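User: Run a structure prediction on this.
Assistant: Running it now.
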Amino acid sequence: MDKLLAVLREKAFDKKPTVDDLKKIEGLENVTGKERDEAWKKYQEEQQAETKPEGEPGGNGDGADKNQTTATTTTTDSKPDAKPNAKKDDSPRYRVTVKRDGFRRLGRAWTGRTEVALSDDELAVLQADPMFNVDEL
């Protein structure tokens, strides 16, 4: 699996490669679908961890809960001089569905369906992109 992970990192796949494509690579002639799926999951977790800011769990490689859903922030949270939101529960919530796992937008790799808080600017970016479906909750 180490060789397979190294290949995924090196080639920076934006979608899960087929087993047949992987078997064409030297050293991966005997790769199975299960091995590919396990490596792809780990690769996606690494990609998501890289997009998290240092202050968030998992953002500095601290081995935070790997089963945790993707942490979300708004653009104002990342600005040091921004005023903190008094009530985070009042922020708008959206369900974002990406059409291709691993597709990158807004500084992160998106997978499947994720419920997030978005700023107006982030919402506009995702709604304008045909790779995303955004539903208000």
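The CA atoms of residues 122 and 131 lie 14 Å apart.
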